[in-house]
Amino acid sequence: MDTNKSQETTSRLISDDVIDLRQYWNTINRHKWGIFGFATVITMLTTLVVFSMKPVYRAEATLLIESKNANVVSIEEVYGLDAGNSEYFLTQFEILKSRQLAERVIEKLNLIDNPEFNQPPGVIASTLSSVKALLPLGVQPEVSEEEQARIKLQQVTSQLIENLTISPIRKTQLVKISYDSFDPLLSAQIANAIGDAYIENNLEARLQLTSKASEWLMERLSGLRDKLKNSEQRLQEYREQEQIVGSDGGFDIANSELDLVSSKLVEARRERMALESLNNQIKRLDKSNPENFELIPAVLQHPLVQSLKGSVLQVELKKSELAKRYGPKHPKMQAAQSELENARRSLNTQILSVVNGIENEYKLALSAERSLQAAVNKTKQDLQSINRKDYRLKELEKEVDANRQLYDTFFTRLSETNATGDLQSANARVSDPAQPPQKPAKPKKGLIMALAFVVSIMFGVMFSFLLEALNNTLKSAQDVENKLDATMLGLLPKLANKGKNHHQSYTAYLQEQQSAFAESVRTIRTGIVLSALDSPHKVLCCTSSIPGEGKTSLALNLAFSLGQMERVLLIDADMRRPSIARAFGLSGKAAGLSNLVAGTAKLEDSIHHDENSGIDVLPSGIIPPNPLELLSSRRFAKVLEILETKYDRIVIDTAPTQAVSDALVLAPHVGAMIYVVKADSTNHQLARNGLKRLKEVKAPLIGVVLNQVDMKKAAKYGDDYSGYYDTYGYTAEEQTA
Question: pTM score, two decimals?
Answer without folding.
Answer: 0.49
